[in-house]
Task: structure prediction
Amino acid sequence: VDFDRWIKAIQDAISQAINTQPDKTDITKRALSTYDEQQDSKALNELGKIPGNEFCADCGAKDPEWTSINLGIVICLECSGVHRGLGTHISKVRSLTLDFFDSDLLEMMKVLGNQKM
Result:
């Protein structure tokens, strides 16, 4: 049952991404822009504002700073270690503060989140 919900959430996120067609000026701006740490931090902070993301998806710890990008969840430091131990074929762990998230990945993470998963 949880697996079916996970598959459905991923399929919905993919469908939404496919059906959203950016205009050419947006693509050009993105291609010409350099990495802006302040904008990236602002976008990453938005993930914490998504309902359910204020707590670790696994243990419930407050203000998690890690994520499993293929599961679409936000997790705490301790649980990120457990996820890393599972292997990247199960959970790909990234830091919300140390790693770079491109705009497509951020959009997918905004669509998913702990509450949906």
